[in-house]
Amino acid sequence: MGTVKLIFGLLLIISVITVGVAILPAYMSNYQFEDVLNNEAVAATYSTKTEDEIKIIVLKKAQEMEIPLTAEQIKVQRSGYQGSGSLIIDTHYTVHVELPGYPLDLNFRAATKNKGVL
């Protein structure tokens, strides 16, 4: 009975490690991408960049980070004036992960909002 428990425990540990190694990079990339969006929103709030220019910058950053994002999945909304308005950047994307015997689609939403101080 002790051998069965040991084998079951080892299989469980190996399974958890396998799933973690497959899924963790997608979550870390999303976390880093959200940080990039926050930085871009702060910078763009005080610049004269148009919504389309911001969208292109976000798309390039996503491509650099190998995030499967298209221009249609990026929404940029600016309200108010430079420095006193607000800027919203919202993205939705899906990352496909192949687990042993079980394909998995992870849905992510990376978004940020920045409001000017004036």
In brief, what are we looking at here?
This protein has helices spanning 2-45, 51-64, and strands at residues 74-79, 86-99, 102-115.
Describe this structure in words.
This protein has 118 residues and is of the alpha+beta class. It has one domain (2-115). Helix content is 49%, strand content 29%. It contains 2 helices and 3 strands. It has helices at residues 2-45, 51-64, and strands at 74-79, 86-99, 102-115. The chain has a 3-stranded antiparallel β-sheet with strand order 1-2-3, with helices on one face. α1 (2-45) packs antiparallel against α2. The longest helix is centred in the first third of the chain and has 44 residues, at 2-45.
Strand-helix topology:
Blueprint: H1 2-45, H2 51-64, E1 74-79, E2 86-99, E3 102-115
Antiparallel strand pairs: 1-2, 2-3
Helix pairs in contact: 1-2
Query: What is the domain tally?
Result: 1
Secondary-structure-derived class:
alpha+beta
**What separation lies between the terminal Cα atoms?**
70 Å
DSSP helix fraction: 40-55%
For the secondary structure, the number of strands is: 3
Major sheet attributes: 3 strands, antiparallel
Overall pLDDT = 90
Low-confidence stretches: none
What is the 3D form? Answer: elongated
H and E string: HHEEE
* CA gyration radius, whole angstroms: 20 Å
Question: Within the largest sheet, what's the order of strands?
Answer: 1-2-3
Number of helices: 2
